[in-house]
């Protein structure tokens, strides 16, 4: 993107209209990270929460050396739980294994279920095997949404040893848990996975059926 367009985006980010600022952030999709990050920082502490939220997300998909410390600081110190959750999610997009410890702390210590959920999902995105124990513990939490995140993350990490722990959710009353299970099993090749997927492909919910069918095809091809 040429300098003229970058200047136009920079001007948009300074607009009094929050819609203009949001559109400017969307325009940064085509901008190289080293050019985009200084512009994103202009609205990182915007008065309008959706603008801040999009800016935090943008740091996760425009990785530079600046992004990691900014996101960790937001995760650990921001007063808004939504922004902390956004920061946790963005750290997962960075796929920087340095984020493991901050995400683990957020999972155990943050008082917001949304932040803990985002931290669990991002631990899966990091594909760091150190997260297996934490994620298996999360399966025993009372919060259904954390169970969903843990099942998905264990699948992303390809934690084959977790199969028995996650298979108990095959008849969960929550269809989203069953869908997450069907998706995760597609990354965990074993006879138990195939058997469970043949059960889930007959599920009463169409999205569970679809996920199970896709996972079965993936396992057959692999």
From TrEMBL:
Q: Which UniProt keywords apply?
A: Antenna complex, Lyase, Phycobilisome
Q: Which domain of life is it from?
A: Bacteria
A single GO molecular-function term is: oxidoreductase activity
Checking InterPro entries in the record gives: ARM-like (IPR011989), ARM-type_fold (IPR016024), PBS_lyase_HEAT (IPR004155)
Identify the Gene3D superfamilies for this entry. Leucine-rich Repeat Variant (1.25.10.10)
List the signal peptide residues.
none
CC annotations in GO = phycobilisome
**Can you say what this protein is called?**
PBS lyase HEAT domain protein repeat-containing protein
Q: Which species expresses this protein natively? A: Hyella patelloides LEGE 07179
